[in-house]
Give the backbone structure.
Amino acid sequence: MGSKNKKTWDEIFSNPVKSDIPWIDIEALFRVAGAEITEGNGSRVRVKLHDVRAVFHRPHPENVTDKGAVKSVRRFLQEAEVKRDDL
């Protein structure tokens, strides 16, 4: 995992929860973890990782996440049993 992906991982799992992580960095982390990403309707993004599926909404117009989205991404990575060392 590159230093940018490590920073994104640390931001996702930081406490208190951050609210300004660029969505493009989160998608890049999903790809490094081996996720399949497909486009849905509108701003929806379908992600499949280790047989765990989730649907996220790309943030707009700012392109950065809010705290609720970060919590959802965190939960998704935990359910997919992704560890920082696995990347």
Remarks:
- The domain at 3-86 is CATH 3.30.160 (Double Stranded RNA Binding Domain).
- The chain has one domain: 3-86.
- The first helix runs from residue 3 to 12.
